[in-house]
Amino acid sequence: MLRGWAPAYKPRVAWRALLLLALALTGSGGARAELPSLDDYAGLLADHVRMGEVDGLRVALVDYPGLATDGRLARAVATFETFPLARLAGEAETLAFYLNAYNLLTLRLVATHQPLADIRELGHWWRPVWKQTVGRLGGREVSLDDIEHGVLRPRGEPRIHFALVCASLSCPDLRGEPYRAATLDAQLDAQVRDFLANPGKGLARDAERVRVSRIFDWFEEDFAVAGGVRTFIAHYVPLPATVTLDADLPYDWRLNARR
What we know:
Layout: H1 15-25, H2 39-48, E1 49-54, E2 57-62, H3 64-68, H4 71-81, H5 91-111, E3 133-137, E4 140-143, H6 144-152, H7 184-196, E5 203-205, E6 209-212, H8 215-218, H9 229-234, E7 244-246
Parallel strand pairs: 6-7
Antiparallel strand pairs: 1-2, 3-4, 5-6
């Protein structure tokens, strides 16, 4: 068992999340979808996300004030919110759509609540930010929990945890391009490799053990499909069988904002 702590917001799947999952699954076959245009979202990422460093930690930083005044933000969100979910065709298209939607809605949430030091400030102990409505998909109000735990996690792809970005320094880095069905597998592998290559938040070695992100503890069950956390990590980074593996790297919740 990995050592670490579970966050207080670790959720149960809500009924509306199950409805979203059903909507997503209805689009898992059939002809190729007419996917929403990613032009505005791609432009936002290219112009407002830059790699930087905060207190020695290498991280993708977001210009949230600039994002808030960029007209492409509203257009990009509207493109996703009005897209008919039933037109999603296949697993890759569904995953790419919801990964992009989660990250885009998170960007809007933070950008429209500046100044902000920590995304968790937008919630309360009785209703964390993850459970609050952030937009509409398929005609229904959704929270970040609905997308992550109601739609994405049940699909059995553990690499989503390195593509979803909760606007915090210790989150996986926000990718500088949208996720696309045609290149999704390579993009997800790159996200995992980049995260594990970052000793400040992904994987760090010392003389006696390997320490990894608390993400591996919080969502340990999701890695069972890959043979468990150790096997999953070993696919990307060599791990001697005798090394101690602890999911206890400090998690920095400060906003991933440009300083």
